[in-house]
Task: structure prediction
Amino acid sequence: MMAVMARAVLAALLLACTAAATTMDPVPQGGNAPGMSALDVRLKRLESELRCLVCQNQTLADSNADLADDLRREVRTLALSGKSDEDIKAYLVARYGDFVLYNPPVKPVTWALWFGPFSLLVAGVVVWWVVLQRRLRAAAGETTDAGTTNDEKARKLLDDNSDD
Amino acid sequence: MRVLRWTIPFGIFVVLVAFLWVGLSRDPREVPSPLIGKPAPTFRLSKLQAPGETLSPADLKGSVWLLNVWASWCVSCRVEHPLLVQLAQENVVPVYGLDYKDKPDDGRAWLAQHGNPYTASIVDRDGRVGIDYGVYGVPETFVIDKMGVIRYKQIGPLTDEALQDKILPLVRQLQQ
Result:
């Protein structure tokens, strides 16, 4: 009896929840909400390429930090005054350094960062190739040596057997 | 060839350890400022204690000074504040305060409570000047030379160590 009642209560609660959900506006998550202007879309894209200095693993677009708020306002003001994306990035880099950019620029200090993994990959392939060639050569030598010895062994075995 | 078999992996291991040793001992919160060696960004802001008067870095050309970014809401500022008060008493270098994103009344009350080490404080109500100085974690302290060039930036509270080892020697050198 208790179980049936509990089930009924649960069902009622679930119904209430779905009813509430349908009457609420869905919160836009990711993507661009339909009401966004071209400027909003541009700002959102730009802000998602910029780092929040306070919570360093968040973009300017995602961060709730006070400074992120100020910087978003600053970016918007700059954009409205006709500055290009590159101008806005340069403005922030001049103040906070390359660290504000999620994509670090390619320059001598960041060469190791950009090309390091690829040079390691190339080095790995070279080592793999050299080792492989050496093993193949060694294996080829072994089979010819082993071939004669195996032949001799087999012949010897056959000879031994024929003696019986 | 036999020797290479273990020296190469061992060498790679040593390099890796060296990189991790250096990399992990650095504080990721301390982002090197691109403003070091650049002229201090200009501003003209009104003084906290004398709202009718204004201050600009141009007014301070010819002297070495510190710009300390603080706020009444900033907890770490309380940690460094006694050091600033002591520094002001020693009269080595003028310290100017940038009251960052603060209500002027709160700022004045805070100084009344904790002591005022500043030759003058200026009010950056909306944080615009803070952005120009690349401020992202209050407190921050800049050392500015006679030509108005930023020579050093301390991120986070001043420590006795930073003051004695870096800031004061630099100030003395710049004052000559």
In short: Chain A has two domains: 37-105, 110-159. The mean pLDDT of chain A is 79.
